[in-house]
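Marked as duplicate of an earlier ticket. Keeping the data here for the record.
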Amino acid sequence: MHESIIIIVLISLIFIAAGIVKGVLGMGLPTVAIGILGLVIAPVEAAAMLVLPSLITNVWQLIAGTSFVALSKRFGSLLVGICVGTPIGVSFITSGNTHIVTTGLGVVLVGYGAYGLSSAKLQVAKKNEWWMSPLMGVLTGILMGATGISALPVAPYFTALNLKKDDLIQALGLSFTVSSFALAVGLYFTGQFQMAIATSSLIALIPAFAGMFLGQAIRNRLRQDVFRRCFFIGLLVLGTYMALRSLSLALAS
C-alpha cells in the first residue's frame, strides 16, 4: 500500500513537470513524461498512458487560440499526412525497436535547438508549403507512431514558417491533437490501449492540466523574443535528454 502511494505521487509529479514544459513551450509533455515513465514501465505502456493526457491537453491548447479555422485550412494536407504516417510508425513501437529512432530524434532536436539559438535562420517560403506540408505530416506521423513523440519534424517546420507565438502554439496544438488521436487508434487496433491503462491515462489528466496551466501563466509573461529563446533552449534540453537516455538503453540492451 505504501509503495503504491509512492508510485502514484511520483507519476503525478512527472505529469505536473511535463505539463509545465508543455504550458511554456506548447510541446514536450510526451517527451518528458514518456522518458521518465519508461524507467519503470515498457515504452508501449508509457505511450498508451500518455494518450489521453496528450490528446486532451492538445485539444485545450488548440481551442485556446483564435486562428483554428485559418490554421486548419492552411495545414490540412499536413494533418492528413500525419494520419497516413502514424500507422506505419506504430509497428515500430509495438515491436520495441525504438531506441535508435529516439536517439536520432534527440540528436536532431539538439541540432535544431542550437541552430535556433544562433544568429542563423531557417526559413521556408510560403510557396513551398503545398508540397512540404504533406511531407512533414507523413514524417511526423511515422515518428509519432514509432516513439510516441510528435515534435519532429513539425515543430522546426512551423518555426521556419515564422509563425507568431500564439499561432505557433495553436498550430502545434492542432498537429499534436491529430497525432495523439491517430496514435490512440493505432494502439487500440494493435491491442495495446487496454482498459487498465486507459483508466490510468484518465487519472493522469489532473496533474498534467495542473502543470499546463502553470506553464501557460509563465508563457503569458514572456515577450516574443524571450519566448523564442526559451522555445529553442527547450528543444535543446529535451533533445539532449532523449538522445542520452535512448542511447544508454540501446547500449544496455
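See parent ticket for discussion. The chain has one domain: 2-252.
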